[in-house]
Amino acid sequence: MDTHFIYRRIHSLTGIIPVGLFLIYHLYIQLYLHSGAEVYNEEVNSFYDSPLALWILVLVVYIPLIFHSVFGALITFEAQVQPSYHYFAHLLYWLQRLSGIGVLFFIIAHVWNAQLGPLVADTWGTHWEHLAEGFSDPETGLVTKTVYVLGILGATFHFANGINTFSITWGVALTPKSQQRMRVISIITFLVLTISALYALAAIW
Amino acid sequence: MSRMLKFKIKRQDSKESSPYWEDFTVPYKANSNVISCLMDIQANPLNSKGEKVSPVVWDCSCLEEVCGSCTMVINGEVRQSCSALVDKLEEPIRLEPMSKFPVIRDLAVDRSRMFEALKKVQAWVPADGYHDLGPGERISPEHQHVAYKLSECMTCGCCVEACPQYSKNNDFLGAAAMNQARLFNMHPTGKSLRKDRLDVLMQAGGISDCGNAQNCVEACPKSIPLTESIADLGKQASKQFWNNLFSS
Fold first, then answer.
1. Low pLDDT (below 50) residues in chain A
2. B44-57, pLDDT tens digit by residue?
3. CA dist A81 to A84, B132, B157, B166, B227, Å?
4. Which residues touch B96 (CB under 8 Å, ≥6 apart)?
5. How many angstroms separate the CA of residue A128 from the nearest CA in chain B?
6. Residue B68 belongs to what domain range?
7. Is the Cβ–Cβ distance between B70 and B77 less than 8 Å?
């Protein structure tokens, strides 16, 4: 067993734990957008009241996320285009890589827009207003909305399909039948997360 | 005038020279396969322009899709040319050598990398020696049912040709060798090498280089459950990983 195997397995694991779990939590919190500015801001800011907030953010979110995305981007360069094989799983293989790269760019923009930008500008804390302003901006609003929808679709797809490939990588689902069941689970995950996230955004559309 | 079949063949004169396409026309015969057409070209090596050219080189042996040596890319998809019936192929029929192996000449490729991979994973039962080892262990019908399917692999190369992770620039072992590692890891005598096989599979080029595209299982002419084999080895590797971390 060498580092090659360990890095790949850590990459596979971090996609689900903690990055995938964080995605679920993150999208859940967004449902509070429907509860209005005060409740939403309170809900988001309450996390930062914890004395461990920064530690949790760095150790549970940023480091695993950066490792998963940077290592994943490197893995993508191994892939060779095989144009004549039109199989469903092969399509998912490419969508997984495409969504991974796309979401990486989305996250960079998203972290700047929602976290670092407001911190630098000293407008941190009024998250609801910040998001709503961005969405209703007469010039850039449509672009922001489009980027968010694409980012959500990319992230939920990447996570849902990742459940499927994770189960093969770790040997959770062995037979074609059990892999089929896993696929059903991942489709349900994709639909639930996507609908929930888009519904949350509808509050400030 | 009798019907003629059009062929476009990707040719290469030597290992080092660059490939080029050449057109051939072959008289149609009912029920002929790609190999019988190649034989016609060999007997009368004229290209479509009527020029006399060197006959097209290809590999074949069993002619019943069990040896794997006649594997080539036909109309973009990798398969055995012996079981490729021209009646079922769109014209012009495009023949190319497999892209993942060094070309020896024309359609003949060198699949050594696959056989080296079998050696790396020790795809055999260790039973060397002249002394009497006694009867082998009994194998249940359930075991046989699984193992027989895995043993049908003919190392033809379809799985790795279709694989987006297997390239000339890396040292990925590929689905065929992994499937054999699974087969011999489940064999009552073969499993004595289980740990050694997993050690190799848990290095660069091993099990973790699989990208789950699952083209292998779709392309396999023997319908071997290759994804299941890879998942099974993934499970074995997970256990070994755990043992290496906490029990050794």
1. none
2. 999 999 999 999 99
3. 9, 52, 17, 11, 20
4. B9, B10, B72, B73, B74, B107
5. 40
6. 4-109
7. no
Phi, psi of B51 (to 5 degrees): -80, 145
Residues B59 and B173 both lie in one domain: no
Band of residue B127 on the pLDDT scale cut at 50, 70, 90: confident
Classify A3-202 by CATH class: mainly alpha
Of A4, A90, A174, nearest to B213 by CB-CB distance is: A90
Whether residues B16 and B84 share a domain: the answer is yes
Which candidate in B89, B178, B212 is best for mutational testing of the A interface (most A CBs within 10 A)? B212
Regarding whether B118 and B70 lie in a shared domain, the answer is no
Length of chain B equals 248
**Encoded tokens for B122:** 């020790």
Q: Is residue B222 part of a domain?
A: yes
ipTM of the predicted structure? 0.92
- Minimum Cα–Cα distance from B169: chain A residue: A78
Both B73 and B150 in a single domain? no
The count of structural domains within chain B is 2
- Listed in sequence order, the residues at least 6 apart from A51 whose beta carbon sits closer than 8 Å to its beta carbon are none
User: Model-level pTM greater than 0.90?
Assistant: yes
